[in-house]
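Worked example 4.2. Below are the chains of a multi-component assembly; read each line carefully before continuing.
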Amino acid sequence: MMDVQLTTQALLPRCLTLFPERPVTSLMVAGKNEAGQPTASRHRTTLGQVARRSAQLAGALQQLGVQPGDRVATLAVNSFYHLEAYLGIPSMGAVIHTLNIRLPIEQLVWILNDSGAKVLLLDSMFLPLLPAFRAQCPELKEVIVFSAQVPEGTHGYDDLISSQPETYAWPELDEKSGAMLCYTSGTTGNPKGVLYTHRSLMLHALASGHPDAFGIGQYDVVLPIVPMFHANAWGTVHTALLYGAGLAFTGVFNDGPSVARTLQDEKATMCAGVVTVMLALLEELDRAAAAGQPYDVSALNKIGCGGTAVPEVLIRALYERHGLQMMQAWGMTETSPLATCSNVPAGIDPVSDEGFAHRSKQGRVVPFIEVALLDDHGQPVTHDGATMGRLLVRGPWIAGEYYKRGVTSDFVELDGKKWLDTGDIATISASGEVWVQDRAKDLVKSGGEWISSAEVENALMAHPGVSAAVVVAVPHPKWTERPLALFIPHGDAPSPAELREYLKGHIAKWWIPDDFLAVSELPIGATGKFLKREIREQYKNHVWTDGGMK
Amino acid sequence: MMDVQLTTQALLPRCLTLFPERPVTSLMVAGKNEAGQPTASRHRTTLGQVARRSAQLAGALQQLGVQPGDRVATLAVNSFYHLEAYLGIPSMGAVIHTLNIRLPIEQLVWILNDSGAKVLLLDSMFLPLLPAFRAQCPELKEVIVFSAQVPEGTHGYDDLISSQPETYAWPELDEKSGAMLCYTSGTTGNPKGVLYTHRSLMLHALASGHPDAFGIGQYDVVLPIVPMFHANAWGTVHTALLYGAGLAFTGVFNDGPSVARTLQDEKATMCAGVVTVMLALLEELDRAAAAGQPYDVSALNKIGCGGTAVPEVLIRALYERHGLQMMQAWGMTETSPLATCSNVPAGIDPVSDEGFAHRSKQGRVVPFIEVALLDDHGQPVTHDGATMGRLLVRGPWIAGEYYKRGVTSDFVELDGKKWLDTGDIATISASGEVWVQDRAKDLVKSGGEWISSAEVENALMAHPGVSAAVVVAVPHPKWTERPLALFIPHGDAPSPAELREYLKGHIAKWWIPDDFLAVSELPIGATGKFLKREIREQYKNHVWTDGGMK
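Applying the procedure described above to all two chains together yields the following structure tokens:
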């Protein structure tokens, strides 16, 4: 067989020749309204235009001295600009290094210095960070702004590329060379970099286009609410480029109304995002329907959701109230990220109770991914759907080391093979269904047993008076730890007694939180997840109303 | 990223754990009826059982001395037996070498000796060939018969594997090692072997499962009418195993009624086969409908067709008369085989005139495949949808050499890259749509210009009085060659004058054949295609009725 390498360069002729007219729309910041909030304008381009401009970008970067293997950083929200960088930078042999815009400046500086990026492309809204980068990132030489008017000492992206030809002499690349770099948001210690290769990105794209995964093809329009700066927007962008799907980007406008309107306007067929974003979308769909002005989201045939365990009540509500199908996917920065999908096994009605139960779990591995469980002593755990263990994963798009750090203790050996220890606690059923119970660090250890905070949260959120819930461990003199629930009420807050009673039918009695606190908001971290570490810290001295479980 | 190899071993845990209950049905020869025709019985098994037995087969072969890299041949029709061999042989590191049952014994002997297979697995119906193999294939040591009762000196498959454990210590494999071997049917000269690697098979399976290709997933039941002994049943079998689709095999029963009944009984959602088989299926569906007893083939949502150019009239008839969707695919033994698919570009109604026109062409490349055209001087030809050239193809599942022969003149260099010269003459449109005009050797060269026999045949077959047509070149004193049409009438044979008149509105006037001969049958070769070489030979002295075109 021919020795043809799997690289992002394969996306270029597909965009240029096969799918040049497929739409790419981006909500851009046009200005500010009287309340100081950004207002949106819609930018329209096509996959063909994006591919031509990505060649121009490659030409411009080459002139700025970018060599194969160099890191080129981005600090940007989702837009056609970012898409052009996604396509052009790896295809010229450089590495696109996406920075998480939600990280504090100290972490951004640390990450930039760790990657040693020479060039930074950024949205103009992040220009205020530039002095810090200039002062503290000695290797950073060139700054390119996704904007027309740019400050002294930076390049305007459109200006810079306009003089370049629309073709580029793409070099021969090895599929195992680096293409993208993304750092985990690292709740403890310094962030860790994951270097994606051309091979891993392209295999991931091939596998995720299938309907048993994300289902992205030439007739689709994909709205990746999930940011391009984190875990490659779950690969949805590469998958769209490979299969010729249109793309709709909402940029900074990821609130429920903006997302709902964009889904409607662009006739999006697929969207993907974390639970918190989807809860906001559901709320807006509900509001509009109640107001007698429902959105027309009839084109939307699949919603991918993940990042944290997806509450069954969310999956049900989207279907029952709006006819929308949500599929849960599981992965992490280190897994590219797609590892499992909750597609419902053949023979089971996806909208039956059984079907919803399957969709509330993390599901089964996509092709070429393997999973296993380890106990605390490093021994394999039975896949019986009940016994919990640390979830291990391996496959051709799973990280085998961290950038510059090599093989850390996050990697373990089992059956003579290398696996990634995900830090998740899960069960796996005999039929291969993964059910993540918790992050290992979020588990509640009560009386020598484990309580899955995720499962308690899932049960709590099914109560009509609860719109979001977080369960954390609080030290307890007798039981080591006991669960505390914090929740954002939906309407009038239900009483702790009512919630306790409600949970009795749904989870083991000793899993029921000892206290329930109604709060008006919960802290959300850089990747859209609730910050349990902060909440645990804040409530570590919580005094149980009645001393907690006896 | 982890160095995880893409091998057929990845199919095993998917069959065993994720999709163990998916059905595999096979029509087996039960006996003979009074007319001496084989009668069928239906065998039922599952993907899980097939995977367990494939491990038993690997154990048995190992005991017989099969080592990694050894060739293990099969001479068999489609069945669960052949499927077990597909899964077990490559996964143990050996190479499954499928023999085309329709080849003459001299070619089979030549091929077996070329591959040097040590072991042969065969259906009992091919036992009469055994003495010839024994006498002429010195390297062949062991013969295993897919049957209960076996002759002296052979092994009965079921007996042989029954004592083996259902697990096997599958060895570590390099994805670039050989997994399957298939010889082209070689109309001239000796057959040429194509060695598929684990990587090429698995990438092909990943890409062909997508709905823009064959569309095979866990909810599907696939009936590959296309034989497993030729071009891997177009990869449909591996794709089914990867994504968890059920399989239905019709074995020797590939006539219209058997196929139609199996599609109905097994609720097949996808089937794939060559044009001649699909014409027989259409005829049977028509017959049954006219008799007031139509088949229920409502589960069938996609028919893949290829091998030769698919007549538009067939695609239309299946839709208009039976509501069935046919997609044309193009490839050859050397291309694994899927290279292009006639999925209709986004924005065009697949059942409009425009949609059918797209589906009558070979379509656009699947991911990671590239195509190009060369003229007779080895220069690239414009992709304008009109200029013909020799079709070149390259990609990670395209052969880069022939087994034991290396890089022959079938491989050419263009833009510093290696390409396969397919021997097809095609146009490619600006939007990448491939339209195969002819095999280079089947083109009619008239007055220094080329006539596409495929296009003339396509036009002829749209006439209601024509059920099949073949157009061949016949030497002509003035024009070098002129086209002669042979056709099998549908009902009363239309007159040459009527066909000539009919074609005037559909093809260039000088492309219209000079004679039209009604025949009762046309010779079909080992891969289900009309044998144009034989027809040309038979009619090379044809005397034109009126001297032919002036």
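Take a moment to check your reading of the output against the notes. The first strand of chain A starts at residue 23 and ends at 32. Chain A has a mean pLDDT of 94.
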